[in-house]
């Protein structure tokens, strides 16, 4: 994508100086576009890395990690606990991905964001109410 962006900048600056003919524009951009076609790795790695680091930070120090730590310490079988916890996390992630895909086909992203926000606010209000009532 960077090469295509560079191509657009080059063409724009050359055109503003009136030193580029139409065939040069076509050849330059076609060459740059051919380099990026069929290589969506930038997008794939972008989605993968943002997902990985978001989930990593969300899961760090949460109940799942603490439960896994305790189970590993109690069982003295850390690799079996690792395999079981990994399989469980993969399974819950699969459910989340499949549900997210289904929802994205039936609900617009804007509505989905609104519903997600409303759900989180509702949960926060219920937790806050629980703290007030039980204190």
Automatic annotation (TrEMBL):
One of its GO terms (molecular function) is metal ion transmembrane transporter activity. It comes from the Bacteria. GO terms for cellular component: membrane. Keywords: Membrane, Transmembrane, Transmembrane helix. It is found in: Membrane. The chain crosses the membrane at residues 79-99, 111-129. The keyword Protease does not apply. InterPro entries: GDT1-like (IPR001727). It is a multi-pass membrane protein. Its main location: membrane. Pfam families: GDT1 (PF01169). Belongs to the GDT1 family. This is GDT1 family protein. It comes from Merismopedia glauca CCAP 1448/3.
């Amino acid at each position: 994508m960077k090469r295509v962006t560079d191509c657009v900048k080059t063409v724009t600056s050359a055109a503003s100086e009136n030193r580029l003919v139409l065939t040069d524009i076509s050849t330059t951009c076609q060459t740059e576009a051919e380099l990026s076609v069929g290589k969506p790795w930038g997008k794939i790695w972008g989605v993968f890395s943002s997902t990985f680091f978001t989930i990593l930070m969300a899961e760090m120090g949460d109940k799942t990690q603490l439960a896994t730590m305790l189970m590993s310490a109690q069982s003295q079988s850390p690799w079996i606990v690792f395999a079981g916890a990994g399989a469980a996390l993969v399974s819950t992630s699969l459910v989340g991905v499949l549900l997210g895909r289904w929802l994205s086909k039936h609900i617009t992203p804007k509505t989905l964001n609104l519903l997600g926000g409303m759900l989180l606010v509702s949960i926060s209000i219920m937790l806050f109410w629980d703290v007030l009532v039980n204190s």
